[in-house]
Amino acid sequence: MPPSTVRILLRFLGSMNLAITLLVAIAIAAVIGTVVQQNQPYPDYVFKFGPFWFEVFKQLDLFNVYSSAWFLTILGFLVLSTSVCVYRNLPAIVKDINDYRENSQRSALLKQPYQQTFDQSATLADSLAAISALLKQHHYRFRLKQEGNSYLVAAKKGTASRLGYIFSHLAIIVICVGGLLDGNLSLKIAEWRGKIAVETRRIPASEIPAISTLGDDNLSFRANVDIAERGQADLAFIDYKDGYLLQKLPFTIQVDDFRIEHYPSGQPKSFESDLTILDPATTQAFKQTISVNHPLNYQGYTIYQNSFGDGGSKLSLKAWPLTTAQVAKSLQASVKAHTPIDTQTLEISDFRPFNVNPDPSGAKKFINLGPTFQYKLRDATGIANEYITYMQPTQQDGRWFYSSGMRSKVSESFKYWMMPADTNQRLDRFMAFYQGLHNPQKLQKLATQAANASKAAQQSDLKQRQAVAAFMVQLGQQFASGGYEQIASTIEKTVEEPRRQQVSEIYAAALQQLLKNLYLDVLQQEGVKTEAGLSDFDSQFYTDAVDAANLGYLYASPWFFELERFQHIEATGLQITRSPGQWLVFPGCLLLVLGVFCMFYLPQRRLWLLVDTKDQGVSILLAGNAVRNRYDFDREFAGIAQQLNPTV
Amino acid sequence: MNHHPYQQASYLQTRSGYDWLWAALLLLGAGYVFSQYQALMDGYEIGILLSSVLVLLGLGWQWSALKTFSLTVTTFSLLAISRYGDDLSLGETSFLLKYLFASQSAIMWMSALYVMATVAYLGLLFSGRLFVGKVASSLTWSATAMGMTGLMVRWRESYLMGADIGHIPVSNLYEVFILFSIITALLYLHYEQKYQTRSLGGFVLLVISAAVGFLLWYTFDRHADGIQPLVPALNSYWMKIHVPANFVGYGAFSLAAMIGVVFILKSRAADRNPQGFINARLPDLALLDDVMYKAIALGFAFFTLATILGALWAAEAWGGYWSWDPKETWALIVWLNYAAWLHMRLTKGWNGKPMAWWALIGFFVTLFAFLGVNMFLSGLHSYGEL
User: Which residues in chain B are closer than 8 Å to A134, comparing Cβ atoms?
Assistant: First the structure.
C-alpha cells in the first residue's frame, strides 16, 4: 500500500469516532445477549420464538452472541483500534513525560490559557528562591533555564496522568487478548476446519467418537463432570452449541466423600468434596478438600465445586398393584437406572433425602417433609408418566396422608394423590380398601351379602337378589376404573333426563352400601370390632379413603411405589478449567486500575514563570495550563498568583 | 537555616492534635479487633482490615468531618453492641436498642432523617435561608450516621443469630440499598463541603429518598428486612471488597446524574428566566460541569475496580473470571457507557448540556444493571430477587 493509504487507514483505525462506535456496538451486542437467554437447548428456543424466528436468530448466532464470529470481530476491531491509538500517541506522550518545556518562548507562554504578569521588588535570587519554595509547596517539579537576563522556571506535575493513559489502554489490549485465548475461538476454528464435531446424543462416554473428543493437550477449556461418591473420572464434558464435547484429562479425579451442610432453615451452608488426584506421572496421590470459593489447583488445572446431585442412591421399594388384588412385592432400584417391573420400566431420576419447607403455620419455622424420589414409569409402548412420591405421610387438617404427585407432561406441575394413613401411620388399610375395589370375587361376595341383607331382599326371589348384587358389582367396578365421574357419565348416556336425578340417588345409595361393606370387611380383616359403630378416626378414614379411591384412576399407574428404605449416594458436580489467558487478564486488570486512577487523580499541570530582572526588582510572567480539572486548576493558579503577588 | 514564607511543612507536620488522636483511636480499635478475632480471620481478611485502616486514616486526615462521623458511628455501635451482650432478644426489650440502635430501628431513623433532609434541602432551595441549609446538612449527617450504625449493629446481630450465620451486611438487596444511601450521601456531603454549595442537596437527596422508599416497601410489603444466612457462593472475603467498591460506583453515578439534572435546569433557567430563583440559587454551570465530571471519574474508577474484583472472585467461585452472566454483562455495559462519556469529555472536549443528559441516561443504564437485571433477567447473580 502507498504510504498515504497506510496513514489514512491508521488515522481511521485510531480515530476517536471509531473507538466510540465500537464501544457502543459492543454495549448493544451485550444487551442482546442478556435479553435472549444464552446457550439454552435448541428446542427451548423453537418453543419460545417459533420455527421461523428460531432459524433467523440461529443464523445470527443470537443464542451464543458472545462467542459468535461477528461479536468477536467487533472485539477484534476494538483491540486493533486501541492498539493503533496507543501506537500513534505513545511517542508524543513519552516525549511529553520528560519534557518540562523549558525552551518555551515568551510568545508561546502568552498563548497559554492561564497567565498573569506582575512585578516584585525582591532581588532575582530571592525571587527565584521564593518561586522554588512555592512550587515545592504545590508539589511541582521544575527546571530552571537562563537566557540572557531572563530566567525561565518550567514546572509540571501529574506526569503519571500521561502514564495512566498508556497503562489503561495497554491494559484493554492485554485483557482482550487474554480473554480471547480463554474463549472458545480455537474450538470454533477446529470445528470450521472439520477437526471436531459436536456430540448431541446422550450416550456413554466410552461410545463418544474420537471426533467429539479433545485430547489432554487442549490448553484452554471449561468442562463439567458429575462423579458419585467413591467414584472416579478422567474426563469431563464441555458444553458446546446444542451438544457437548468430551475433554480428556491427564489425571484421574477420585471423589472420596461429598458433604452438604445445612443451616437450621434447611438452606445449604456448604458443599464440600474430598478429592484425590491420581496422576500417572507421579506415584504420590494428591488429596484436597474443595468447596465453593475454595477450588483446587493442580498443574494449571483448576477444579471447582460446581453442583451436586444423586450418585445412584439405592432404594428399597414396595410395589403395590393398583389395578389388581395381587400382593405387594418388594423391589430394589437405583437412582439414574432403569428397573423393569412386569411390562413397565421404572426410571428413577432423582432422590432427595429431605425436603425442608417453611412451616405453613407461621414464620421462621421450618418443617422437614422427609425424603422424596422422582421417577418415570414407562409402558411397553414407550409412553411414560412422571411421579414424585414422599416416603413419609404428611399432616393436613390434623390427618396424615401419603402423597404422590403425577404429571403426564414435563411442562405441567405435579397433581397430588392423597392417600390416608391408617392408625399405624401405614398405607396398609387404604391399600386393602383400594385393592378390594379391584377384586371382582370380593366385590361379588360383598354385593351378595348386601343384597341379601336389605329389607327389600326378604320379599324378593334369588334371581332378583342376584341381579341387585350384579348391579352393585358393576357400580363398584365403574367407580374403581373412573370414579364418580364415570358413573355419572354412564347415567347421562343411558337414562333420560327426567329420571336422572332419581336414578343417580339410587346408584349413589347402592355404591355407598357396597363401599361401606368393603370398608367394614377391611376393618374386620384388621381385627377392628365394628359392631358398636366406628370410631371418629375410622369414620374419617372412610371418607378420606373414598375420596382418594374416587381420584385413584387419575393417578394412571398400575403401581404405587412405597419407599421403605434407602441408601443415599451423592454425586458431586465438578467444573474443571484450564485458562492460561488469566495470566494476561489479571496483570492487565491491575494495569487498568492503576491507569484509571492515575489518569483521574494525577492530572497533568504545567506552570511557567518567566523572571526578568529590571532596574528595581523583577517582573514575572506566570503562565499555565491543565489537561483536565480546569475548575481546580483555576483555584490553584489563582492561589499561586496570590502568593507570589499578595498586593493584587 | 533560611526560613521562607513558602517553606513547606511536611504532610505529617500539618496534622492537628485531633488528627493524631483520631488516628490513635483508629489504630487502637483495629488492634483490638485483630487481637479479638485474629483466629477467625484468614490472611485476606487481615489484609482487608489493614487496608481499611489505611484508607480510613487517609480519608479522615483529608476530610475532617469524616473523623467526627466515624467516632459517632463507633460510639453508637459500641453502645448497641455492649447493650446486646450475647442476647439477641434484647433488641425487642431494651429501650436503647428497640427505639434507637437495633439495626432495624437505626435504619428506620436513617429513613426518616433522609426524608426530612430532602424536605429541608428543598426548603433551602425555595427559601434561600442559610439556617435551613445548615439544618439540612445536619439531618443528612445524622441520617448517614444512623444508617452506618444500623449496618454495624446488623453485622453484630448476624453473629448473635449464630456464629455460622454471621456475615458483613452487604449480602442482599435490603442491605445494599442502605449501603447505597449512605455512600451517595457521603459523596454528596464531601462535594458540598468542598465546593461550599448546598443547593444540590435537594436533588441528590431525591435519589436517596427514592432508595429509602424502596427500602420501606421492601421492609413492610415484602418483609425482606430479616438477616438471612449466606448461600455458599457468597461466603467469601471477596464480598467485603467487591460490593462496597461497586456501590461507590453506583453512588457516584447517581450523584453525577442528579448534578446533570441541576445542570439542565440551571441552563434552561439561565436562558429563559435569568432573574428567577433557580438561576440565582443553583451553582454556576462551570462548577456543575466540573463536579459532574469528577463524580463520573470517581464512579468509573471504582466501578472498574469493583468489576475487576468481581472477576477475580468469579475466577474463584464460578470457575472463570468472566461468564457473560447478565449482571456481569450489564456491568460491562455500564462501564462502556461511562468510558464513552469520559472519552467524549476528555478527548473531544464535549461538555455542557449533552453531557448532562448523557449522565442522566447513564443513571438509568446503571439502575438497570443494579435492579433491572435482578427483576427481569436470571443468572448467577440471583442474590437479591424482586
Answer: 6
